[in-house]
Amino acid sequence: MDMKTINVPFLSGLAGLDLEGLDLEMEKRAAKFAVCECNWPDVAPYVPDCNGAVARTEGHLAIAFHVRGLDLRATAMEDNGNSWEDSCCEFFISDPADGTYYNFELTCIGSLLAAKRTGKNDKTDFQESQMARIIRHSSLERKVWDESDKVFCWTVALLIPFDLIGMDEGNLPETLRANFYKCGDLTAHPHFLSWNPIGIPSPDFHRPEFFGKLVLER
């Protein structure tokens, strides 16, 4: 199976922007990608539109997602809840040093699940102090949503400090292994989409062997 690659540009100053400013800079200058691989059409055939942009700053990896699709579910109001059950965009990345990986699962209203993992069922959740350093944005009002059979458009973004994902910002690796996902397990139209394809018979995002490649531009 081919591995997709993104060249991630360096863009200064993103961490200080609001969502409107960040979205504009990312649209102009960041690398674009589509979360469009429907790996399990027999299980979950629905494919909403999910496109993203990625860049790096001096100290962060910046990711923005734009979604257009059916349903809007947001019930996880606290961090490290069941984000994947809601309307959710996700980013998983391998730690270049120790073979573990990190998952960041950001709901449509900005609730975040973040953990360091050796596998799906073996994780260490990020502490409150770590979560506070991750910059998050959402275009939606932060409240409970549970709407079905309507079309919604929304944007979320996050900027992750490099040291939270096992890297020294002054000595970054040339390449990283990662994947981007779109899901909504308990929405009226469940879906499990990825950027890089996943070659297994049933839905599972926790498969680092199917991560694609990010090349960090200097």
Question: Which tags fit this structure?
Answer:
218 residues, mainly beta, Immunoglobulin-like, 9-stranded mixed beta sheet, 5-stranded antiparallel beta sheet
Describe the structure.
- There is one protein chain.
- By secondary structure, the protein is mainly β.
- The chain has helices at about 20-30, 130; strands at about 5-10, 30-35, 35-40, 50-55, 60-75, 90-95, 100-105, 110-120, 120-125, 135-140, 145-160, 175-185, 190-195, 210-215.
- It has one domain (about 5-215): Sandwich (Immunoglobulin-like).
- Helix content is about 5%, strand content about 45%.
- Strands 1, 3, 6, 7, 8, 9, 12, 13 and 14 form a nine-stranded mixed sheet that branches.
- The protein is globular and about 45 Å long.
What is the straight-line distance between the termini?
Answer: 28 Å
Instruction: Report the count of strand segments.
Output: 14
What is the highest CATH level, the class?
A: Mainly Beta
Would you identify the regions where 5 or more consecutive residues have pLDDT less than 50?
none
CATH architecture field? Sandwich
Shape: globular
Specify the number of helices: 2
